[in-house]
Design brief:
Blueprint lengths: L1 E2 L9 H12 L7 E3 L7 E2 L5 E10 L11 H18 L3 E11 L5 H18 L3 E8 L4 E10 L13 E5 L4 H11 L6 H11 L5 H7 L3 E7 L3 H12 L1 E6 H8 L4 H7 L4 H7 L6 E6 L7 E8 L3 E5 L5 E3 L10
Parallel strand pairs: 1-6, 5-6, 10-13
Antiparallel strand pairs: 2-3, 4-7, 5-7, 8-11, 8-12, 9-11, 10-12, 13-14
């Protein structure tokens, strides 16, 4: 964890770096030569492909503190990056965390944020080994995560005839965010579960590792199913055809269906367009995938996404979803 300026008093940059080192440091972690406390981290050699990703969470864009605690912010910032590794079938190794903190972040808030990061790091077995700390006009948390993979899974590679498979509760986080935005039905247990899914998503690292040897292509669902499916279809130059009956069947569980009804949302619309920060996994494979549900089929291009309706009709799926600049 580097320092931009030296300081000695409690609450100074040096004191805050020491706080982060106490919360995030994991002495003797496997594969870590040097962790927090030097000018840079040192990792032992890895006999596999290295997989890197970076994700930023910005106050006012990715989170609002009237909806989240600082521990939640730390957790979410880490899991967003971990989900990218899951989609590539990579084993997380270590992380870097760059924090730009506004004046509103006191030491108690920083400690809570670091606790959330540390909990998420332990969950995916990737200790934070360094980073940077600075003051900013707005608070942002940037997580860089390193993984290793014998055969990284890419978005390109889906083949005509493959099945389309989905893992994760697509739509729950979106409904939770909608409930918070409206301030409605927050006491209902089904809606509360959706809110918790948004506040505390979990990267599906174990499923990503299990699928690695079997899948032809994969992507994590972070911007909505329609949009991320379109990314995979474009990279592979194929058409992904979702089956309405299969999508609806897997979504008609004890939580999502009643929550959607309470919030006045169509269930299929929630799944296709209302998801995003569920950090689910979408994959294509010639054979079934443990922990995944088959929800469609891959057809030859042109690149795009389509929906096979229950009545046999077929329609194009608009690749809309979350877009920072849209």
């Amino acid at each position: 964890m580097s320092r931009e300026r030296d300081g000695r008093r409690a609450g100074t940059e040096a004191a805050r770096v020491a706080l982060l080192a106490r919360r995030l440091g994991v002495p003797g972690a496997s594969g870590i030569g040097v962790g927090i406390g030097d000018d840079a981290a040192v990792l032992d050699p890895v006999d596999a492909s290295l997989v890197w990703t970076i994700d930023a969470q910005v106050d006012g864009t990715h989170f609002r503190l009237d909806w989240l605690g600082w521990e939640d912010v730390g957790w979410r910032s880490f899991m967003a990056a971990a989900s990218d590794l899951a989609a590539m079938g990579a084993t997380p190794v270590a992380a870097l965390s760059a924090l730009a903190l506004s004046d509103a972040v006191d030491d108690d808030a920083l400690d809570a944020l670091a606790r959330g990061q540390a909990d998420a790091a332990r969950e995916v077995a990737a200790p934070v080994v360094g980073g940077n700390l600075a003051r900013g006009r707005e608070t942002s948390i940037t997580t860089t995560l390193l993984g290793r993979a014998e055969r990284p899974v890419l978005r390109r590679g889906a083949r005509a005839g493959d099945g389309v498979y989905l893992a994760g509760a697509v739509g729950m986080a979106g409904l939770g965010l909608l409930a918070l935005q409206r301030g409605e039905h927050l006491d209902d247990p089904n809606v509360a579960a959706c809110v918790e899914a948004w506040r505390r998503p979990r990267a599906l690292v174990d499923l990503g590792l299990a699928m690695g040897a079997l899948v032809s292509a994969a992507v994590d669902v972070s911007d909505g199913l329609a949009r991320d499916a379109a990314h995979l279809a474009e990279a592979s130059a194929v058409t992904l055809v979702f089956d309405e009956a299969l999508l609806t069947e897997r979504a008609s569980g004890a939580l999502l269906l009643p929550a959607a009804a309470l919030l006045g949302r169509d269930l299929l619309d929630v799944v296709v367009y209302g998801g995003g920060e569920d950090y689910a996994l979408l994959a294509t494979s010639a054979s079934p995938l443990a922990g995944f549900d088959r929800v469609g089929v891959v057809e030859p291009g042109p690149a795009g996404v389509a929906l096979l309706r229950a009545d046999g009709a077929r329609s194009a799926v608009d690749p809309r979803g979350f877009d920072h600049f849209g």
